[in-house]
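Q: Hi! First time doing this. I have a protein sequence and I read that you can turn it into a structure. Is that right? Here it is:
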Amino acid sequence: MQYQVLVRKPSEQHFVASVMGLSDMVADGKTEEEAIGHIKAMLVSQLSNAKLVSIDIDSDIEIVATNGSQPDCVQAEDPWIKRAGIFEGDPTWDDFLSEIETYRREMDERTSQ
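A: Yes, that's right. Below is the predicted 3D structure, encoded as structure tokens:
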């Protein structure tokens, strides 16, 4: 797993490393290598008893949760599947598509002139 780390040098012999996207992950050191070593140790410590989970507001837990180095994958339902076929049997659907096609043709003609 890789993380982007911003390393700053606010003064001579003072380096500050911070993990991008994780505002509470900040470490410092007298050298760049020392600051990076400290931030790496903080990340390892944090991730050893935690896991990263991706969530979708409209559905349940999505794929990828990691627990240490062993991934725990949970397959989420595809949110588009719920909406498939909602216009089946709608008597205005063909007219709607026809209007879209007409509009697109008109726009294509305007831009090609």
